[in-house]
Fold this sequence. Notes:
Elements: H1 2-34, H2 47-60, H3 66-79, H4 83-96, H5 102-113, H6 117-130, H7 135-147, H8 151-164, H9 169-181, H10 185-198, H11 203-215, H12 219-229, H13 240-243, H14 252-264, H15 268-281, H16 286-298, H17 302-315, H18 320-332, H19 336-349, H20 354-366, H21 370-383, H22 388-400, H23 404-417, H24 422-434, H25 438-449, H26 456-470
Amino acid sequence: MRRPIISLVLVFAGVLGGSWYGWQLHARRTFVIRHLPVTPDLNSLPAALAESVSVAEAKSHTWRRPAEGLIELSRLYHANGFYPEALTCYEALREIEPANAHWPHLQASIIADFGRMDEAVPLRQTAVRLAPEYIPARLRLADVLLKSNHPADAAPSYAEVLRRVPGNPYALLGLARCDLAGGAWNRARERLNEAVAKNPDFIGALSLLVTVSEHLGDLSSAEALKTTIGRREFSDLPDPWLDELSEVCFDAYRLSVAAAIAGSAGNADAAHDLLDRAIALAPTASSYRRQAGQMLLSDRHYAGAKEHLEKAIVLNPTDSDAWLFLVNALRGLGQEPAAINVLLTGLSHCPQSPSLHLEYARWLKSAGRLNEALVEFHYGYELRPSDASALVELASVYFTANRNSEALAALNQALERQPDHPMALATLTFYAISLHDEAEARKKWELVRLQTKTPPEVVSGLRQAFLQQFGRELP
Length: 475
């Protein structure tokens, strides 16, 4: 008698368990469907995005995998700039998976970008609590606290990152900013110097060091730092949870921006992959081909750069930068005659390009065709009168042609445009030395010494020329 009773109990338990499981599936599916965002207009974007959204929405309506569909939707909307829809998804995902740190972290990234720091702080705190080992979450929390004018609260988070990852440049930069908020300029400089010592190419620390050095009166160091930075830009901290969203991005422009960020951060492989996807999505846009060619050119991959740049100018013959980059790629391949032909063809398509005219003027000068070079340098300067460098190069041609008074006039005009132009000052110093005018040479040298952008070989040449001419060394 006992066995039938046990069997009945087991059957009842199975039925009850199945009912409970079914009820949970129904409840989760109903919750997901109720919280699905309204599908936005996707007609202006690639069809692949609309197809992916449709597949994810269909999955969100299934019995067994509605949450997976919602996750896919959140990624698609976030990666392609549909932020209100992404926020709706993240809000629901936080209810479904309250122990998953991804959702508050990604939700906060959108909210913080909108400047809603007070709302972002608790989300950041939740992400850190749920994923204490994920360093970007701690750094993001500290950043949002600092931006909310709470440096005293931000500093412990930065310090905890340093405890876990000694020398982390973003944590050192954050602590330096906290120091500045409290007026501790010297302490900030110490932290920034530490960050640069361990990460010499970290633009964030270098840029803030410029401000600190200027504030402390160390102008020479500030100028040297500006030279080191050049045109490089700050790269935001790596954040794999956020960065991986690019995998489902179907917006070519967003992919090109992500590629530029990856390239500036030194991740060339990722940058090229992102650009390849941008090109595939927008095959008729020349700008992405040009960007890919420029990146390959910087890496001295001349053959690959040439291929991209040739396609860029076919797509847009008026893209003067693409023509100029192609000239440099051909020269890198040792194909000088082809480079000149491309330069001339580029000028025929872009007659108002100052860069192409200046490049042609340089070639004319190197070929000894000085009168033609003078015409081109003049025209290049007229097209871009704010560029004093063209006047300096014009002066060098005048000097070569023994037209010294005109050369001096060009140099003085360059200094009117840019009083501290290093090459204009250096050229005038050389000229004074050649005239045996020691007083004038020393006067100009004092100005050259203040210019940290003067190339080291030019400084060395000035010292050597002065020593040979006057038998004394420059200070």
